[in-house]
Amino acid sequence: MVLFVERVGVVGAGTMGAQLAEVLALNGKQVVLKDVEERFVQGGMERIRSSLNQLLSFQQTKADRELEKFEEKTGVRFSPEQREAARKTLRPNFDEKRRDAALARIKPTTRDEDLKDVDLVVEAVVEKLDVKRDLFGKLDTQVNASAVFATNTSALPVSDIQEALSPRRRQKFLGLHFFNPIQTLPLVEVIAGRETSEETMEDCINVIAQLRNHRYPMAPVRVKETPGFLVNRVLGAMLHEAFRCYEERIAAPRDVDIAMKAGAGFPMGPLELADMVGLDVIYHAMVNTHERTKGQAPKPPAALEALVRAGHFGRKTGKGFFDYS
Ligand SMILES: NC(=O)c1ccc[n+]([C@@H]2O[C@H](COP(=O)([O-])OP(=O)(O)OC[C@H]3O[C@@H](n4cnc5c(N)ncnc54)[C@H](O)[C@@H]3O)[C@@H](O)[C@H]2O)c1
Q1: Mind telling me the catalytic residues?
Q2: Backbone angles phi, psi at 229, to 5 degrees
Q3: With CB atoms 3.0 to 4.6 Å apart as the test, which of 107, 147, 197, 216 could cross-link to 186 if both were Cys?
Q4: Which superfamily does CATH assign the domain made up of 7-54+100-223 to?
Q5: In testing the pocket of ligand 1, which one of 39, 111, 154 has its CB within 8 Å of the most ligand atoms?
Q6: Do domains 7-54+100-223 and 231-317 have the same CATH topology?
Q7: How, if at all, do strands 173-178 and 187-192 pair?
Q8: Which residues line ligand 1 (CB under 6 A)?
Q9: Are 121 and 21 a contacting pair, CB within 8 Å?
Q10: How far apart are the first and last CA of the chain?
Q11: pTM score of the predicted model
Q12: Yes or no: domain 231-317 corresponds to CATH 1.10.1040.50
């Protein structure tokens, strides 16, 4: 039977859960957004409101931006009447009504019972195996038996989480790895655990392919269960080399970033990217991948370890490879 997804439960209203709830609601899905405490759920709702307002102001100034670009390029100047006519033609497809309708589709809650009728549950709680296993073990008995369960883990083995479920539900469990910020990054790595059925994989790929974020159609990609999955594996190797270039003083930190932007077409330099993601997060992911690959993936470089030990995690602490104070 083809999976029909109308109601989605998003568990964890933190960074990823709130973004996912927003994108799903914008696509017309009914969303139940659950966290353990009211203040976390409300925090998630506040971030969703603010993101939808940003989308609204981006859309509402779009016509003027287009006109200015055209004037700049061609030297043509529009009269106020022509501007007004163009504004009407280029009227945004997202307005207050749509924003409010999206918000109204999200039900914030702290109660597991509110998830019982959903068609799909996506978990985005803390990156701890025992927490995720406990959560899915509990939801297995509480949520409708036909619902598909997914984890948004970045680094934990999907199959290890899958084991917490009953044998029937294991077939309906998979990894759906979204990227931060979901509103503008459309990739979703779709990962089968040991017991995931092909039907579940196909269903979820189809469901995701029908979604759009603020800018693009979502892009599901099948990836084998492997440490770091695909993007973080490739990105991790690149960041590792950039950290070593920093450590060996191959170039000044700013120049490492300039080199990769100007010479390799990167939109951001590797060191500023690392400061944005969080050096603690990258450090722990590298340690984890080193251990899981039995040393095939390298240990984090000493320079990264020293920054993390000193409490310099990047933007969030005001200092990392660069100073943000
Ligand atoms: N932040 C990223 O860039 C990113 C990107 C891709 C994937 N991920 C993955 O997504 C998951 C969530 O990451 P995040 O950055 O959103 O974390 P976060 O810390 O911002 O949010 C996690 C939320 O989960 C809640 N939570 C904890 N236990 C819970 C439970 N039992 N039931 C309900 N809610 C619970 C917490 O209260 C918190 O609000 C992690 O597995 C992470 O690896 C994160």
Answers
A1: 154, 177, 189, 232
A2: 50, -140
A3: 216
A4: NAD(P)-binding Rossmann-like Domain (3.40.50.720)
A5: 154
A6: no
A7: antiparallel
A8: 11-17, 34-36, 40, 124-127, 131, 135, 152-154, 178, 180
A9: no
A10: 55
A11: 0.90
A12: yes
Least confident residue range of 23-37, 137-151, 235-249, 281-295: 281-295
Between the CA of residue 129 and those of 136, 159, 187, 237, what are the distances in Å? 11, 11, 24, 24
Sheet holding 30-34, edge to edge: 106-109, 30-34, 7-11, 120-123, 148-151, 173-178, 187-192, 219-222
Q: What is the pLDDT of residues 75-101, one digit of tens each?
A: 999 899 988 888 888 888 899 999 999
**What is residue 106's DSSP assignment?**
E
Would you kindly state where each structural domain of the chain is located, as residue ranges? 7-54+100-223, 231-317
pLDDT band at 155 (very low <50, low <70, confident <90, very high): confident
Whose structure tokens read 């010479």? 263
Distance CA 290, CA 294 (A): 6
Q: Are 312 and 277 in contact (CB under 8 A)?
A: no
Residue closest by Cα to atom 7 of ligand 1? 154
The residue whose two tokens read 């990769």 is: 260
- Residue-averaged pLDDT of the chain: 95
| Peptide bond just before 186 cis, omega within 30 deg | no
Radius of gyration of the chain from its Cα atoms, rounded to whole angstroms: 22
- Rounded Cα distance between 154 and 192, Å, is 14
